[in-house]
Amino acid sequence: MMSDDEQGLREPAPTSGETRHDLSGNSRDGVRHEGREPNGTPDDAALAGDEADSGDDDSSHKGRKKKQGSFWKELPILVVVALALAMVIKAFAVQAFYIPSQSMENTLKVGDRVLVNKIVYHTRDIKRGDVVVFNGLDSWDPEVQYPQPKNPVSKVLHAVGSAFGVVPGEKDYIKRVIGVPGDRVACCDAQGHVTVNGHPLVETSYIYTDPQTGEQNRPSDSKFKITVPAGHLWVMGDHREVSYDSRGHIGDPGGGTIPESRVIGRAFVVVWPLSRLKTLSIPSTFSTPGLALENGVLPETPLALGLIGAIPVTLLRRRFRIRRSR
């Protein structure tokens, strides 16, 4: 028999359709009823979780907006930095140039963009066969006349476009070097070849060929004979019939040659259009044995003589030091 107190502690049996819950929210039948108190209202933990989720959504949305806003704020700075770097590269290393005329066909065509190495001639001399860009300011007239922009905005845009090879430069020319200082350049020998130091140039690999008829330009229709002055170059276009090059300036000071100091750099690659992507190498005819003779002396001879002369000087200095040490 149980006492009345013990009977009073016994929980009443659940009525039909009623489920008992303990304080942890577990039903007596082992099923957890989340988010509800026994009286059917949402518990504090569930509300806190919902608020936290809502807060996370808001913060992520604000973060995305902040990132987008910072990108647009930084974009002008990035553009300015990119332009500054491009100008530095253009000024000291590589510059793009637009081809405005037919004077270098078929090697270069109108509308081609080439890259010019502005450093190479600080490390080596200009070579025969190099395709060079030079400034003809106050000496050569432009081969193609373009209307000059009148308003300041157009002038600035033209200057920027010229700097990046989008539009042609006002006084920039591109030609192939045929003769370097000391060379004797003449046209023509009995076979119609241009000669350098008495050796004929075989120019069939680069002189203009008509794509319709297959006929190739002659090396030159005009005769000339010149010894290239010191510090100057004799240059010619590959499209000999239309190129206004050194041959057209024979009556000018320098006899048609251009100063080496006016050379901007060596064109070494065509970068646009992509279908014409190629390098601009020196044709093999400029490697002909004997072509490099300059006034009967090989270019390497002064260096060799200098080395030979340095040997006895070095020996004498060494002998003098030995005597002083005794």
UniProtKB/TrEMBL annotation:
Keyword field:
Hydrolase, Membrane, Protease, Transmembrane, Transmembrane helix
Ranges that cross the membrane: 75-98
The record's section on Pfam families has: Peptidase_S26 (PF10502)
Which family would the database say this protein is a member of? Answer: Belongs to the peptidase S26 family.
Look at the named UniProt entry and state the broad enzyme category this protein falls under.
hydrolase
Positions of region (Disordered): 1-66
User: Where can this protein be found?
Assistant: Cell membrane; Membrane
Q: What is this protein called?
A: Signal peptidase I
Species of provenance: Actinoallomurus iriomotensis
Reactions catalysed, semicolon-separated, are: Cleavage of hydrophobic, N-terminal signal or leader sequences from secreted and periplasmic proteins
Output one GO BP term: signal peptide processing
UniProt lists compositionally biased (Basic and acidic residues) regions at 18-37
Annotated membrane topology? Single-pass type II membrane protein
List, from the UniProt record, the residues annotated as the active site of this protein. Answer: S103, K175
Predominant location: membrane
- Gene Ontology annotations for the cellular component aspect, listed alphabetically: plasma membrane
- Phylogenetic placement of the source organism: Bacteria, Bacillati, Actinomycetota, Actinomycetes, Streptosporangiales
